[in-house]
Every structure is written in structure tokens, then in C-alpha cells.
Amino acid sequence: MNTSHHDDSARWSGWLAAAQQGDGAAYGRLLAELAPVARRMAVKAWGRNEDVEDVVQDILLTLHTIRHTYDSSRPFLPWFAAIVDHRVKDALRKRRRHQGRETAIDEIPETFLARPANTKTTDAMDLRKAVAKLPPGQRQAVELLKLQEMSLNEASTASGQSVAALKVAMHRAVKTLKGLLGP
């Protein structure tokens, strides 16, 4: 390690030790100096990439989260380099996972369905008639929760039913309405 890196590492170690004791100014100086170092280290391992700033932020967040684990009797730079290495490897794994699931599309082909989608329409009158056919508990749940747009707690207070009972009634009402109105 050259003298410059040794001096930096010693300075950073001192600042982090002070930050562990609650010195916010020392912690601010540490982060201000480490951000460009983290960026250079990430670019070296990651390459020039639009996501490198996300990796740098992840490195600094990790440093913040685990700063209490640093032992000031040990060298700072290897400890920090391990954080950078782990975060860069995590980002590379994440990128590979995403690339494995994504397909580049140069041109979106036009497709036509054999029959138009969503051709069945239900008008308001049909829906009102179907709601009127529901059992009283289900009808009340639909009226309070969907038509009057009450929250579950408000509907529970208004109807005297528990939140769980309203959820069950609403679920059954939707199922019944699907049957009445058809597919």
C-alpha cells in the first residue's frame, strides 16, 4: 500500500471511530471522501454503467448500517473494500437475474385476436337488477363497500357486522354476481 492510501486509510479509520462515538461531523467528512472512492472502486469492478450510482448508494447505505462493526485497531481500507466487493457482486447477480428474464424487443409485432376482447358489456340496469337479487347480507356489503365506497371499518359500524363478516359477504356477493351476470 502506498503512503497516500495508508494516510487516507488511517484518516478514515479515525473518522469512523469518532463517528462510532457520535461525532456527526467526522461521519460527514468520512462519507464525503468515501463516495468518490466507492464510485471509482465500483466502476473498476462493475464497469461504466448507468446503474453504478445505485451501487455506490448501496455501498454507502451498507457502510452506514454496519459501521458499528468496524474495529479501529484493524486497517480501514480492507474492511471498506470488502463492503464494496460484496455490494458490487450483489448488483452483478441482480443484473444477471434480470437479464435472464428480460428479452430485448426491437419491434413490437401487431397481433389481432380472433374475437375482440371484453365484448360482453354489462349496463348499470343489469347490475342493479343483479345486486337486488343478492341475499340481504351480501346486498348490504355491496351497497356499503362498493356503491357508498365506505371503508371496512365504516361499513362495519354502519351495518353492525364485523369486518370479517363483511369481507365474507363481499366475496360471496362478487361470486354470486359473476354467476348472475355471466362470464
TrEMBL record:
Q: Which UniProt keywords apply?
A: DNA-binding, Sigma factor, Transcription, Transcription regulation
Q: Which InterPro entries match?
A: RNA_pol_sigma-70-like, RNA_pol_sigma-70_dom, RNA_pol_sigma70_r2, RNA_pol_sigma70_r4_t2, RNA_pol_sigma_r2, RNA_pol_sigma_r3/r4-like, WH-like_DNA-bd_sf
GO BP annotation list: DNA-templated transcription initiation
Residues annotated as domain RNA polymerase sigma-70 region: 33-97
Ranges for domain RNA polymerase sigma factor 70 region 4 type? 125-177
Q: What's a single GO MF annotation on this record?
A: sigma factor activity
State the source organism's domain of life.
Bacteria
Name the Pfam families on file. Sigma70_r2, Sigma70_r4_2
Describe the family membership recorded for this protein in Swiss-Prot or TrEMBL: Belongs to the sigma-70 factor family. ECF subfamily.
Q: What is this protein called?
A: RNA polymerase sigma factor
Q: Which organism is it from?
A: Magnetospirillum gryphiswaldense (strain DSM 6361 / JCM 21280 / NBRC 15271 / MSR-1)
